[in-house]
Amino acid sequence: MRNRFLSLAIFAAVALLLARFEMRRLVLNIDEGILLDAAERMAHGQRLYVDFFAYLAPGSFWLQELAFRILGITLAAGRIIVCLDFSLQCAVVFWLMARLGYPRAGALTVLVFLGLEASNPVLLSPSHRWDSAALALLSVACGVEGHLSGKRMWWILAGLFAGAAAVCTPTMVLVAAGTVVALIARRGFLWPYLAACAGVWAAAAAFMLARGIALPFLHQLAWTAANYARVNVTPYGRFNGGWQGFLDSTAAAPAPLRAFLFLIAALPAILPVVSLLGWLLAWRSVSKPLRFSIAWMLAVMVAMVLTTWPRPDIGHLATVAPLGYALAGLLLAVRAPRWFGLAVAAVMLPWAVVSLVESGQAIASAATIPSPAGNLRLAPAVRPAIARLLSLVHPSQPLYVHPYLPLFYFLTQAANPTRYSYLGPGMMTAADQASALADLKRNPPDWVLYLPLDARTVQRVFPSAPADSVHFAAIENWIAANYRPLNPPLEIEGYRLLARR
User: Fold this and answer.
1) In which band, very low, low, confident or very high, does the pLDDT at 28 lie, cut at 50, 70 and 90?
2) b/e map of 146-174 (b: 16 or more CB within 10 Å)?
């Protein structure tokens, strides 16, 4: 009971912290607007996959739409789901470690996890990855309790959460598959777990059929299978821009500090490997009461890492990192000498706390400006440009953003004349470009936010993208013929605001 109370306290404390510092912070993350713009369209009556393009599974769109319908269409409402996801992850990491007998190690692990991940200014953005990872982690917690207590109810809950995770990210079905194998080996509670998973998937399918989006969703899955992977394949643990770029950016630091910064940045890729190898080496000394829980957690951790394919880069691995933190913390608590665990805590904990405090101070000092999406906190350096953009582009006014930053649609509440929130370089087909161009010609927007791209810029984020696929020549030629830059110019993160001639 005490551990459950402490877990709830951690959840509440982290949620309040994020509500204070994260929910209105504006970070121009290229992916954040994917969910926000789509959920806004849905809140206004448009149908997912039918009235606009979306290549993700429906679960996260439904969660975001629900938040908008309850709380209104604001950035704060757009961030509430991811803030709850992360708060839940912190609470479950502690609960898992405490339930297995190591509450003090759990508290230290949560502080490190919170400090390192919450201090990243671009990480905590709405994403189906956060939603599915939080649900899968909750499924693990219920399963561990079901194993230790022997109660069927917990395995039913584990199945419900695992099924919901797959509705947000279909590859999370690997978590359910790994659990099925574990339950077959355990010889118990397999059918309640499977029935709960199947019930969630059947309910989601029935809702999609009722909305008329089931067949469009299948077509979208086929599009994703054919087009997404070919430009999104990255090596395991890749840093956006490449690790050489990271090392160059820290070249002025002393060698020990530089190595430590590299370790911190690479931790989401390192922890799964260290946890798996460490527990395999220590397996003979693991007590029998712990064996099933540890083995299952390791299997789920590996499954969650596999779900990041084809982009197992640092950003994606960070969203599924909690089990890696928990298993590494348990490994230190169970097998490492006490002095070694204390030494790791003495190094990691101060760094995590300092990172979190510095991030909070930066947010607290940020300027606040009103917008159609509510009050925004943003860095003073970009405040004039954002304020000018909002003074020129008004809600419901036609705006087209090319090629890929749908957050601008959400911030301005402008009307996108196309069915595409973004055009992914190297991903979109000739038919996609033709469809978007036909929409633009049919309803030319008053404004265009345009980012000139080159192969090097695209390949920094999408290293597998062919160099000859970064441009949408027909659309770019049409923009050049029909739009002109402002005088004085307005540029935000490389995007130039153009007015219709």
Assistant:
1) confident
2) bbeeeeeebbbbbbbbbbbbbbbbbbbbb
